[in-house]
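Researcher: Please generate the 3D structure of the following complex. Treat every line as part of one assembly.
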Amino acid sequence: MKSRHRLILIGVALLSLAIGIMVGPVSLSPGELWDAIKSSGGEASPIIRQIRVPRVLLAFLVGGGLAVSGAALQALIRNPLADPYLLGLSGGAGLGAVIAIAAGFGGSWTIPLMAFAGAMLALALVYRLSLVQGKRLDPRVLILAGVIVSAFTGALMSAIMALSDASALRNAFLWLLGGFSGASWPTLGFFVLYAFIPLVLLMASARALDLLALGDESARHLGLDVGKARLIVYLSTGLLTAAAVATCGIIGFVGLVVPHAARRLLGPLHRPLLPAVFLAGGAFLVLADALARTAARPLELPVGVVTAVIGVPLFALLLRRTLT
Amino acid sequence: MSLVASDLVVRYPGLPVPALENVGLRLDDGKLIAVVGPNGSGKSSLLRVLTGVVAPMSGTVMLDDRGIGRWRPDALARVMAVVTQREEPAFSLRVDEAVMLGRYAHLGPFSAPSIDDLAAVRSAITRCDLEPMVERRIDALSGGEWQRVRLARALAQEPRLLILDEPTSALDVRHEMQIFELIRGLVDRGLGAVVVTHHLNLAARFADQMLLLANGRLAASGTPSEVLRTETLREVFEWPVAVTAWTDGAPQVVPLRTGEFPPPA
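Model: Done. Output below.
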């Protein structure tokens, strides 16, 4: 990454965090934000410390994680249309989490684990469905397979919710709507715990992703252990998506929109791309969350609605360009 | 460094005839071997086995006395570079970035390219005549330019052995000759190379040894003069040819037109 780009991105990320903290039912002025940062006193301080800061940080890390997952999956399946949501990972993770909630063991440890299992199962299923004639991975079929698996997990989630009792239904439904209203310092710590290792692994796989994007045979001849690299990317994106879904529900299209924009600005080499995508994805989701909180005040939109409104048109555009 | 393949047999599921049957080859430093033969004669299968992508049903491929399958991919990539026939990257890199991917096996996950890495890339770019286009994106290149980028990437690996599958099939005369001269120059300085090609006449002028494959079997092998014989070629390619000689003594093959059967004396 050129140092100019790095500075701009860090600036945008910090600005988005500041905006995210100031916006909300009680709007804060930049002066109040500054006072709260400077000292522990002041009226606004408890709101900022206990509600806004953890919420904004969580949105930032989830956005960064989803965007990095998207970029990595795009290199893995050699197609810019990949995204944890479109490939059915999020749906699988959601199903795992809903099962955990409905079965009454929805603790802060079991939901992510079930979500991870669901994400991996969905990814394996999508992958298996899209292997045309045994070996060749057709990206168009892959997208369809993602749609099929998403539809299936969606139906199963509805069925489980329809059959579960009122309190479990309410919990599952609130969680499914997604968003960061439940964010707290413990949720943030929890997400960091799950997301740290896969994020580091994906960053360390940057060069491997460059090679995977060339195709298996070329990657292998350039010295990549293709099977191992694929496995690392699979498990890491699955774990990251599961951690995101477990803490804030299903949020789509972050992994599609952000890498696409970043690649146009920085080129496709993953060593500069992944850190940029992380910062930009974080800023994107923080701003989307700020919009979700303010667009229909005093009500709050699910943040997934905002990302979908931005992401779906872009997806349509990309799909057109890829298939023609 | 030597690559020795012996008694290779390759069968693909569902096909009655083996793709390779009892084919062997020995490649040493400073030698250029050309593999020729009709379409579907097993040339690409041979390269897949030689490079460890496909394991043979029987027979062995030894690289410096170690089975090719027992080499770690990165260790292998530091001594053997392969340019396959086709490659469609998902994203459009810049030419210099694409050549730098040849250094993957020399780089750590987080380390920046060293002076050696940059020098290898620069030298590969110069040798493949790519300097004027280092900043272009690879989706804006012609087929021949892209082929030269992939050859430069292979050279950036700084290999001891180079395996090429029809490296010049999309190139015009100048670039084709440049590539063959380049490869021959590297071979004269100690590189070992296997080149699959349809150009019998270029193979005859540049190669030390030739392998002629037909239906997965070895139809002939040896020096170009031993392999390029009128009768053998007519049988293998099922088309009459005449064999003459260029001034340097290399045999040159002229396919005959229908009016010329039997060939003029």
